[in-house]
Design a protein that fits this description.
The structure holds two protein chains of two kinds. By secondary structure, chain A is mostly beta strands. Chain A is built from no helices and eleven strands. Chain B has no helices and twelve strands. The termini of chain B are far apart. In chain B, strands 2, 5, 6, 10, 11 and 12 form a six-stranded mixed sheet that branches. Chain B has a four-stranded antiparallel sheet with strand order 3-9-8-7, with no helix packed on it. Classes of the chains: A mainly beta, B mainly beta.
Chain lengths: 115, 115
């Protein structure tokens, strides 16, 4: 069964450093998302991406964040200058147009720890 | 204001019993979708079930069913014949409208299935 993959599974970085989180969505999917989950809290939407551009973003997704689809398979989230409060699990998700459900398939997540 | 409310932070159920996890939602959009995801301790997000706002019948997927009460704006998840492997966090989520597909999650309910 096709699945969304994410690398790395765990990233430790120092405050102020740039990090890039990588995702490979399911190959025939068209919509891509990043969500984050701070430990013990709910999952929060960051950004959605369709047709090579951002289609929607939350107030969390400020100028420190950017997304890119550099080739036909990868989808990346960059945090330019990490802060302690960026420590969280980051999930990539994708979906095609499967009837009406738009079920989003989630990757296993990248746990980001900012020290 | 919270779009998705899950009022039960924690629930216990005995193996083989049924359990209902509550979810209420708030939207003025006539077109929306409701999702339930399971998050085991390993952290991944597993899609369980979907209900569209125009669906006439309650959704079912194996041991999972969604008790959709539109007038009350509730979408409770019912797990029948609980198994030890059902112990996990359960998140209710909603997407609104037809142009935005971002999911808005509730805070989750932690379910523990006991022998």
């Amino acid at each position: 069964e096709p699945e969304v993959t994410q690398t790395p599974s765990h990233q430790v970085t120092q405050m102020g450093q740039e990090v890039i989180l990588r995702c490979v969505p399911i190959s025939n999917h068209l919509y891509f998302y990043w969500y984050r989950q701070i430990l013990g809290q709910k999952v929060e939407f960051l950004v959605s991406f369709y047709n090579n551009e951002i289609s929607e973003k939350s107030e969390i997704f400020d100028d420190q964040f950017s997304v890119e689809r550099p080739d036909g398979s990868n989808f990346t989230l960059k945090i330019r200058s990490t802060k302690l409060e960026d420590s969280a699990m980051y999930f990539c998700a994708s979906h095609g147009l499967a009837g009406d459900s738009y079920e989003q398939y989630f990757g296993p997540g990248t746990r980001l720890t900012v020290t | 204001a919270q779009k998705i409310t899950q009022t039960q932070p924690g629930m216990f159920v005995q193996e083989k019993e049924a359990v209902t996890l509550d979810c209420t939602y708030d939207t003025s959009d006539p077109s929306y979708g409701l999702f339930w995801y399971k998050q085991p301790s390993s952290g991944e997000m597993i899609f369980l079930i979907y209900q569209g706002s125009y669906d006439q019948q309650n959704a079912t997927e194996g041991r999972y069913s969604l008790n959709f009460q539109k007038a009350r704006k509730s979408a409770n998840l019912v797990i029948s014949a609980s198994q030890l492997g059902d112990s996990a966090m359960y998140f209710c989520a909603m997407r609104e409208g037809v142009s935005g597909y971002a999911l808005n999650f509730g805070k989750g309910t932690s379910l523990l299935v006991t022998p």
